[in-house]
Amino acid sequence: MPATIRDIKNKTGLSLATISKYLNGGNVLPRNRQLIEAAIEELHYEVNEIARGLVTNQTKLVGVMVYDIESLFVGNMLHYIGAELRRHGYGFLICDSFNDEEVETQNLQFLLKKKVDGLLVIPVNRSGKFMEPAKKVGVPVVLLDRAFYDEEFDFVGIDNRMAAYRAVKVLIENGHERIAVITSNVEYSGIYRLEGYLEAMKEAGLSVPEEYRRLGKHSFELGYKNMKELLALQERPTAVFLGNYETTLGGIMAVNESELSWPKDISIFGFDDLIMSRVVRPKIWIARQPMEQMCAKAVDILMERIGSKQTPEEQIMKVTFGIQLREGESIRRLNGRENPSGD
Question: Is 0.70 topped by the overall pTM?
Answer without folding.
Answer: yes
